[in-house]
Amino acid sequence: MSLVVGLTGGIGSGKTTVADFFAGLGAAVVDTDAIAHELTSARGAAMPAIVEAFGGAVVRGDGGLDRAAMRRLCFSDPARRERLEAILHPLIRRESVARCERADRAPYVLLVVPLLVESGAYRDRVDRILLVDCDEALQIARVMARSALSEDEVRAIMATQASRAERLAAADDVLSNTGARDELRAAVLILHRRYVELGRRARPAAADGGARGVPGENQKRS
Ligand code: ATP
After folding, report:
1. In which band, very low, low, confident or very high, does the pLDDT at 124 lie, cut at 50, 70 and 90?
2. Residues 49-91: pLDDT tens digits?
3. Which run of H or E residues covers position 215?
4. Closest residue (by CA) to atom 11 of ligand 1?
5. 3-class secondary structure per residue, 27-72
């Protein structure tokens, strides 16, 4: 399997922007949020279990999940959220592992996991952790600029996520996203070159004649 770099960061930090830059350079991107959307779209693999657990009131006319209805249900009852997560999380994990394995021709895989630092299941599956970091004020401003959320609502979401300090402590690499997009793009290019090299060294001997090297200072996957 290719080297797997786990990309994480708080809400609005710039994960999607960064993942798009990496994808443009040739990395294989596996995005757990995108997988969650696919699983809960019309005819998505999670829908039968969701309908069984929550009934038809959380299903849109086209058969996909009515996110707003589901959010309202979970808001009033945390046990429901746990039930939904118990359905979704194993499916997301299984699908993301399958996609990482299928990407074995890519120089490396970027596995996008918003709550990677919070989740032991993913920390154990990645070779290194890349954090997109920016200060909280910028996070809030960016999320408010692109959604209808109020500052209090953004702060409430941030309170459910790891703190900036916790994320920084867990990261092997950090991309600071406090400047312009072009600065971010330039920093991504430098990291991309590094990951290509680490990915080459990490390949099994049969693939390119080299021994599997050490992917990261904090190598997680056995
Ligand atoms: P979420 O956690 O909500 O999925 P995210 O971490 O994927 O968010 P993005 O969607 O990449 O973050 O970025 C959040 C918003 O900030 C987007 O509207 C994006 O276009 C904008 N943005 C990201 N980086 C920059 C930047 N360096 N300069 C200006 N705007 C930016």
Report:
1. confident
2. 999 999 999 999 999 999 989 988 887 788 999 999 999 999 9
3. none
4. 14
5. CEEEEHHHHHHHHCCCCCCCHHHHHHHHCHHHECCCCCECHHHHHH
User: Residue 147 C-alpha to ligand 1 middle, in angstroms?
Assistant: 11
In this structure, what are the phi and psi dihedrals at residue 24, rounded to the nearest 5 degrees? -65, -25
Query: pLDDT digits over 165-181, tens only?
Result: 999 999 999 999 999 99
Q: What amino acid is encoded at 74 in this protein?
A: C
Indicate the pTM of the whole model.
0.90
Residue 192: CB within 6 Å of ligand 1? no
Domains of the chain by range and CATH? 1-27+108-222 (3.40.50.300), 34-105 (no CATH)
Q: Is the distance from the beta carbon of residue 114 to the nearest atom of ligand 1 less than 6 Å?
A: yes
Instruction: Answer for the pair 74, 84: CB distance below 8 angstroms, yes or no.
Output: yes
